[in-house]
Amino acid sequence: MFTAFFCVALAIVLIPVLLVWEWMKWLRRRRALPPYQRGLRRATGGAFLLALCVYAAAWFPQFLGQTLGNLVSAFLRTPREPPAALVVFAAFVALALVQLVAGAIGARRGGDRDLVSAICALVVAGGCFYLMEWNWYLSGPEAVLVNVVLKGLYIAVMTAALVRVWLSLPSPGNAVRVVARHIQQRAVVWRAARSS
User: Fold this and answer.
1) Phi then psi for 173, rounded to 5 degrees?
2) In terms of C-beta density within 10 A (0-12 exposed, 13-18 middle, 19 or more buried), how is residue 96 classed?
3) Exposure pattern of 176-195 as b/e (b: 16+ CB <10 Å)?
4) pLDDT in tens, 173-183
């Protein structure tokens, strides 16, 4: 009896401590990434979340009984009492847009482009497109809701992979800017000698 109680109490104390420890290790690894990689991750995550939000908005009538337009018009009629679904949806869209824009700017400003990352992202996008086109879903009447979520995940992963491709490929004008900056840094400044 005492041993079982001790094991349960130890688990209740130890599991949260281990979870916090793992979370702290994850934060340290995340901060150690170079700015280009952080920007790439932010932009990919923002694109994923934004695609999920757009897909969820298409299913509002089935799950909430109202379209997004009805929720917005209800908000415009009584702005002091916005619909809770609209507030949550707007918060997720705002978070996704901030992540997407900040990540894209950060990834485009620095770091070398990675062609292998672009090819891997194209393979992921193609795989999601293949799974969606060939109807790789669960079967049975109880899997209808799961299939709706699965299609949304296919679309979101495909969108995030395409954003990753866009950010991983070098932009056309980038080489000209790099060469011009290199020439400017190495340029010799000629000055007239002072006569004595």
Assistant:
1) -85, 0
2) buried
3) eeeeeeeeeeeeeeeeeeee
4) 666 677 777 77
Give the span between the Cα atoms of 131 and 137, in whole angstroms: 8
Under 8 Å CB-to-CB from 40, ≥6 apart: which residues? 103, 107, 117, 164, 167, 168
d(CA 109, CA 167) in angstroms, rounded, equals: 10
What is the tens place of the pLDDT at every residue in 24-55?
A: 777 777 667 788 888 888 999 999 999 999 99
Domain boundaries, the chain: 34-170
Q: Rounded CA gap, 115 and 106, in Å?
A: 18
**135: left (phi > 0), else alpha (psi -120 to 50), else beta?**
left
